[in-house]
Automatic annotation (TrEMBL):
Stored InterPro entries: Dimeric_a/b-barrel, DyP_N, Dyp_perox_C, Dyp_peroxidase
Domain Dyp-type peroxidase C-terminal span(s) in chain numbering: 191-362
Domain DyP dimeric alpha+beta barrel: from-to ranges: 3-143
Name by which UniProt lists this protein: Peroxidase
Cofactor: heme b
Pfam families, A to Z: DyP_N (PF21105), Dyp_perox_C (PF20628)
GO MF, one example: peroxidase activity
Keywords: Heme, Iron, Metal-binding, Oxidoreductase, Peroxidase, Signal
Sequence similarity: Belongs to the DyP-type peroxidase family.
């Protein structure tokens, strides 16, 4: 959990449990032996060619006869129950998530599709008729120089928290108590969890469809009118200010007008900023980075006291799915093939982690608070309109020549649903979930 399975290919194999007794027996005897530990992932020398993790929904734990309260109300309710509170439209959900028949998910990651399929076949052979496949999503790192970039073209996964006494932090990387991510570890504020759950983590899974041709067409149609920039450069600047980083990963806070690939590629510099600058009006100046930029909404850094942010961190382990944009899609500006991000986030408390970020920061046009502009607008990438809000989506501060201008935004991401899971410690798997 604290390291993440960084592989080029991954599949999410969602299943239901038909025979709990057989499943638990095989989990203890065989499946637990192929689950990859964080310790194995820490070192290249011990990294398996294929990494495997398993996590259970509340319905899955119920099916296994595990009735303990894990201390997370959102997990217990399931993602569908509070989908409206994060702006999801259930009409857009993948039927598998809508039907609430998912008991668990195997995450299988490797360097080749064949390895992934072979591993899933092995899991299915071990478990036999004790499970049924409900849904499967294949995902893969993008090809060539786009490896590590999500489908909009931006380097992803740069800003992750370091766990105290576990990871060595890079310059600018926030350090959080391990209990913010790992259940029962130091810093986990919920003290009523069952002891067997210690060492596990809650997994928020989301299938986020990305409308890449529409995103690119929007940038092309709305270049920022910054003196000295060509229209193409103005369009690139708009995209960077919406994200908060350039495609290379270079933060706009450190490189406000043009991409800096050397900065983006330097882990000692690409995360080492706070949004504060000498001689700078921190409450009104958006020349470097808009208040509503995605990276700023998701990690406000110096905009809020550190104590207000520390328990809001998540560890992300997402991966793109779907094909590259086709020539006809690029020409028409219309998506015809399904692609997006298989979003995976680990935390010890979903209501402080993924759910809080989406509902209170991304979907809140008044956040970041305390700025001269009382309504910075929605997160231009992930913000969704709630049932309690009136649209359309807008973001201000994107145009450095007129920071008060609100830019109306179509949706570039459509949530196709997801589920909340608990990823148990290996000790519970070895026990066959007889906890």
């Amino acid at each position: 959990v604290s390291v993440g399975m960084k592989k080029n290919q991954e599949a999410f194999f969602f299943f239901s449990i038909n025979n709990a007794a057989t499943f638990k027996s095989q989990l203890a005897l065989n499946i637990s032996k192929i689950i990859t530990s964080a310790t194995q992932l820490l070192s290249v020398s011990t990294q398996p060619i294929t990494a495997v993790n398993v996590a259970f929904s509340k319905l899955g734990l119920d099916a296994l006869g595990v009735t303990d309260d894990l201390g997370d109300v959102l997990f217990s309710a399931g993602q569908k129950a509070n989908a409206g509170a994060i702006g999801d439209n259930l009409n857009n959900w993948e039927p598998a998530f809508l039907n609430q028949s998912i008991h668990g998910v195997f995450l299988v990651a490797s360097d080749s599709v064949d390895n992934v399929h072979t591993q899933i076949s092995q899991i299915r052979a071990i478990l036999g008729n004790s499970i049924s496949e409900v849904y499967r999503l294949g995902a893969a790192a993008r090809p060539g120089d786009q490896q590590g970039h999500e489908h909009f073209g931006f380097l992803d996964g740069i800003s992750q928290p370091a766990l105290q006494n576990f990871n060595t932090p890079l310059p600018g990387q926030v350090v959080v108590p391990p209990g913010i991510i790992i259940v029962g570890a130091d810093g986990d504020a919920i003290t009523t969890r069952p002891s067997w759950a210690t060492g596990g983590s809650f997994l928020a899974f989301r299938q986020l469809k990305q409308l890449v041709p529409e995103f690119n067409a929007f940038l092309a149609a709305n270049p920022l009118p910054v003196p000295g920039l060509t229209p193409a450069q103005g369009s690139a600047l708009l995209g960077a200010r919406m994200i908060g980083r350039w495609p290379s990963g270079a933060p706009v806070d450190l490189s406000p007008l043009a991409d800096d690939p050397a900065l983006g590629a330097d882990p000692t510099r690409n995360n080492n900023f706070t949004y504060m600058h000498d001689g700078f009006n921190f409450t009104s100046d958006q020349t470097h980075c808009p208040f509503a930029a995605h990276t700023r909404k998701s990690n406000p850094r110096a905009d809020l006291p550190a104590t207000a942010i520390v328990n809001k961190h998540i560890i992300r382990s997402g991966i793109p799915y779907g094909p590259e944009v086709t020539g006809s899609e690029a020409t028409s500006g219309i998506t015809t093939q399904d692609r997006g991000l298989a979003f995976v986030a680990y935390q010890s408390d979903i209501s402080n982690g993924f759910f809080f970020l989406q509902a209170n920061w991304f979907d809140n046009p008044n956040f970041i608070v305390g700025k001269s502009d009382p309504t910075p607008g929605w997160d231009p990438i992930l913000g969704q309109i709630l049932s309690t809000q009136t649209g359309p989506r807008f973001t201000s501060g994107l145009d450095p020549t007129d920071p008060n201008r609100d830019l109306t935004l179509p949706d570039f991401i459509i949530s196709e649903g997801g589920e909340y899971f608990f990823s148990p410690p290996i000790s519970a798997l070895v026990a066959g979930m007889e906890v």
